Automatic annotation (TrEMBL):
Keywords linked to the UniProt accession: 2Fe-2S, 4Fe-4S, Iron, Iron-sulfur, Metal-binding, NAD, Oxidoreductase, Quinone, Translocase
Organism name: Stakelama tenebrarum
CDD domains noted in UniProt: fer2
GO biological process, one term: ATP synthesis coupled electron transport
Superkingdom: Bacteria
Family, similarity comment: Belongs to the complex I 75 kDa subunit family.
Domain named 4Fe-4S Mo/W bis-MGD-type: residues: 216-272
GO cellular component entries: membrane
Start and end residues of each 2Fe-2S ferredoxin-type domain: 2-79
Protein name per Swiss-Prot or TrEMBL: NADH-quinone oxidoreductase
E.C. code: 7.1.1.-
Keyword set includes DNA-binding: no
């Protein structure tokens, strides 16, 4: 490990570290525009200049210079100060003076570093260069005259997102960053280039001219658009959520978020349920809480103990626990969270968990994907597979061929392949130290037993390594399974039981025709399919409007806070269930959110501690026969839930990026 001094401070850094990293280890701030910890080194902005001895008496780019023994690095000499001032003067020669109208204002690296390291005045008297705007789709707004050619966006799309959709054309002063043929960028991770851009060249189109960062209240939350459990920050002003940004969590999402996470938040202010409704003479009529509860009480008297609860894909654990307690107090145990009809075995949660962990995916050396379009079902797991490939991993897949942004050897589209894998696949797994299988929802329903059979066949479970993984794509799924929201035959068991009263907790993907004879109570936040089919609607809070516990696909328990209050008469779900229980004569034994959580922890101790829950590996013995073609469950990445379907931005993304509709810009 090299030892060197930085401004007289001795530091020791790992072999292969750069001088810039050594400076940071010594506690020195090094300005930079092009360097980013998660991207390859470009070395083209020259802002990170330092003086290094032994070596020529000139400033050197610390991001591209390997750290070595006995180096003397200076970050505070007159030469370094003058060199950084010169770099900034060059960058600002063509940069437009439009900070007052730039959306990056207040969180702009160029502003901050000019204040800290710049001269404060310019000697340039000539005309500034101007660049035409580029079209990058409904997510990214461009003002390319501001671009300083750091190429962060280019490297991100190539290395992380996996599509060469953004690049540079021409040379020198004529160089321009653009999308391919100026078409919309189709990557579901495209919004990350806005965070990466150190100036205002790439900004968020839906957030344009909305607010300044110092006006916003910042709330730590958990994303519910998929089962990855992306850590996010919700920025709000008044009672509106203006944007969602990713937080750094190396074990889950690193510092990325897909476009649904970022931009579906405008759906929180559209099609909202803000008052109770009761169906009278076939029509839903606005009512007050007393009338709505009275209608449910009347239905409950006729139903007796014939009661069920079905949880949707975005529900928090506290809501599910409160509903479970209410249904149990009424004498029933009919609970289900797999609303679309899945019916896999849940006697051992490790057998339906992502056991390798999201971060552990990077270490795999052979990966078999079974019935999963990983790019749409878990975009940030897909980026980890890309990193594994860079380390030499080989990827096989069973299912309909799709573009996963990396090389895949497709074996076919028949579950029977699980019992007769080609010799090349078996040979690859035979020599693997860390083999991995990812089973998607499309294969889980009919191929769970056959997939578990691969544990022995391919040697997936070893000392310190479990390569068997089930990939869920619903934020509420693992939490629901831990709370008992699973019948042996799935939702078909509930349909067969013919409940006379059914509570739908934000469940919009259910086949409501199967519940025609049941009195349907919908507790949710959007006027989607569930509300249209309901006999009573009780307006509830979205994930941004209540604190909650969520368990991601790897069994990681995480908690989010409330950013804003729900609109109108809408209330937090657990308070609705608590008030309803009193009206039904089955008062639940908790009056505060703290009491509710304490009882939930007693019922499911694994939910008490944040972090990975521990599931004992004891897979069930299931029928290993599997056959039939695979059909991926997600047909439109941008419209997977009620919030997305209410979002104008997601509707535009779906129309343009999935269905190929063309939209003319204003200038056209």
């Amino acid at each position: 490990m090299p030892k060197l001094t930085v401004d007289g401070i001795e530091v020791e850094v790992p072999q292969g570290a750069t001088v810039l990293q050594a400076c940071e280890a010594a506690g020195k701030e090094i300005p930079r525009f092009c360097y980013h910890e998660r991207l390859s080194i470009a070395g083209n902005c020259r802002m990170c200049l330092v003086e290094v001895k032994p070596g020529p008496p000139k400033p050197q780019a610390s991001c591209a210079l390997p750290a070595g023994d006995n180096q003397e690095v200076r970050t505070d000499t007159p030469m370094v100060k003058q060199a950084r001032e010169g770099v900034l003067e060059f960058l600002l020669i063509n940069h437009p003076l439009d900070c007052p109208i730039c959306d990056q204002g207040g969180e702009c690296d160029l502003q901050d570093e000019t204040m800290a390291y710049g001269k404060g005045w310019s000697r340039y008297q000539e005309n500034k260069r101007a660049v035409t705007e580029k079209y990058m789709g409904p997510i990214v707004k461009t003002v390319m005259t501001r671009c300083i050619h750091c190429t962060r966006c280019v490297r991100f799309t190539e290395e992380v997102a996996g599509g060469e959709e953004i690049g540079a054309i021409w040379r020198g002063e004529d160089m321009q960053i653009t999308s391919y043929l100026e078409h919309a960028v189709k990557s579901e991770l495209s919004g990350n280039v806005v965070d990466l851009c150190p100036v205002g060249a790439l900004t968020s189109k839906p957030y344009a001219f909305e607010a300044r960062p110092w006006e916003l209240k910042k709330t730590m939350a958990i994303d519910v658009m998929d089962a990855v459990g992306t850590n996010i920050r919700l920025d709000s002003r008044g009672r509106g959520i203006l944007r969602a940004l990713p937080r750094i969590n190396e074990d889950v999402n690193e510092e990325w978020a897909h476009d649904k996470t970022r931009h579906a938040v405008d759906g929180l202010s559209h099609r909202r349920l803000d008052k109770p409704y009761v169906r009278r003479e076939g029509k839903l009529v606005a009512a007050n809480w007393e009338d709505a509860f009275a209608a449910i009480v009347s239905a409950a008297k006729k139903a007796g103990d014939s009661v069920a609860a079905i949880a949707g894909d975005m529900v928090d654990c506290e809501t599910m626990f409160a509903a479970k307690a209410l249904v149990k107090s009424m004498g029933s145990s009919l609970l289900e969270g797999r609303q679309t009809g899945m019916d896999y075995d849940v006697t051992n949660l490790a057998a339906v968990n992502f056991n390798t962990t999201i971060a552990g995916t990077e270490e795999a050396d052979v990966i078999l994907l079974v019935g999963t379009n990983l790019r749409w079902e878990a975009s940030l797991v897909n980026t980890r597979v890309r990193k594994a490939i860079k380390r030499g991993a080989k990827v096989f897949a069973i299912g309909p061929e799709v573009d996963l942004t990396y090389k895949v050897e497709w074996l076919g589209n028949d579950l029977s392949l699980l019992g007769k894998l080609p010799k090349a696949v078996k040979d690859a797994f035979k020599g693997a130290e860390k083999p991995m299988v990812i089973v998607g929802g499309a294969a889980l329903r009919n191929g769970h037993g056959a997939a578990l059979g691969l544990v022995k066949t391919l040697g997936l479970v070893k000392e310190g390594w479990n390569g068997f993984n089930v990939l869920h794509f619903s934020a509420a799924r693992m939490g629901g399974l831990m709370l008992g929201y699973a019948q042996k035959g799935g939702i078909a068991d509930i349909v067969a039981a013919k409940p006379k009263l059914t509570f739908f907790l934000g469940a919009d993907e259910v086949d409501f025709k199967a519940f025609q004879d049941s009195y349907k109570v919908y507790i949710g936040h959007h006027g989607d399919a569930g509300a249209h089919a309901a006999d009573v609607i009780l307006p509830a809070a979205s994930y941004a409007e209540k604190p909650g516990t969520y368990v991601n696909l790897e069994g990681r328990v995480q908690r989010g806070d409330r950013a804003v209050f729900p609109p109108g008469d809408a209330r937090e779900d657990w308070t609705i269930l608590r008030a309803l229980s009193e009206a039904l004569g089955h008062t639940l034994p908790f009056d505060t959110y703290g009491e509710l959580r304490a009882q939930m922890f007693a019922d499911a101790p694994a939910l008490a501690n944040e972090g990975l829950a521990s599931f004992e590996w004891a897979p069930p013995s299931l029928d290993t026969k599997a056959e039939g073609e695979i059909a991926y469950p997600i047909r439109d990445f941008y419209l997977t839930n009620s919030i997305c379907r209410a979002s104008p931005t997601m509707q535009r993304c779906s129309a343009e990026l999935v269905h190929g509709e063309e939209f003319a810009e204003a200038a056209e």
